Automatic annotation (TrEMBL):
Highest taxon of the lineage: Bacteria
Protein's recorded name: Uncharacterized protein
Amino acid sequence: MNMSHGETVIQKPINEYAVYLKSLLPANIPDTYALKPMFKNISSEENIRNGVIAFRDFMYLFCDRLISDGHLYAKPQKTKNQLDYPFLKNMNHLLIDIGYNGSLNESGESLLISEIPSFTDIKPKIPASKQMEYLRFLALCGFVFTGIDLDVKTFHMPDGFLKISYPNAPVMLAGLKALSMAAVELWVRFYNNANDLFRCDYRVMKAEDTDLLDVLKDMIYLLPENIQRFALELHKRYIDKEMTCAVINDTATHFAYAYTKNSRRPLSPRDIYSRRIWEFEVSMKYGYCIVVRSKNTDKYADLIKTFPLFLREKIAAGYGCDRKLRNEPCQGGCQGIRIPLNDSTVAMKRDIELWLDHEVPSS
């Protein structure tokens, strides 16, 4: 969901966003899975898989560097989208350019590149005055650029090609190459997350579909075991009730559930998201939540009276535009009734199940 609702806000410092970004990285990347044929010309499948893990580890280092030094590169600004950090957006484009346009040398230990579109296009995404700053930051994270002087003010592409290496884990370059190809050729834009390399979403590269239960486990692995267990049981309950699940990544991660059994056409993840009845969500602003878009509460009002006070009040308040409903600043109320995913919610497990049960159409 696009975080912009027309109101100007001050961003959180980029180091806080880096902590959040680090939490989104997949913790448990398998070392055995088959790749789509389009990736097999890059390197061996083993190298690519190991390279993806190495890129994830690079992202840990990248986030740690942002946590310690990010304030030197990006100051909080007034914006209508509090998660719009130009430095990160441009860095995302630069890394994709390096991976997509670079060619691995024979040993696989360097990328050779003759153009960097975000630098060299007629209207480059990264202005000339900032380009060396981006390369210097990558150098702090372990990249080596052979053929240029990082101390000069203006970037100039060397004659022939620029040689880029990553001595800490050379195999990372194969992972970067494959993930960049996926970003350009396979990833689907949803709101403002076009080609977001930072999530290290290797799953789109797999020849076979990923079990959504594994995706959910990766999303909630930082939570206490009892809350993880609650989330996994809720997922199984509504999959067993024939709900369809889709994962959507934008500035947040949405694990959305919709009843689509009667649909007359195949539905995309975006279609499923638009029809969602409820979802798990993790975002920088709200943390881990359950978000419910209940529509039938008048049909089971007597049941609602038996719920804990907190849940009764949440349901009674409803959801919709905060400005229109309550004359309050936007709090994302249009997305649904938001319940924090914590111990208190686990204690209401049976009530939440009854609530959701009455919102799911009968088979």
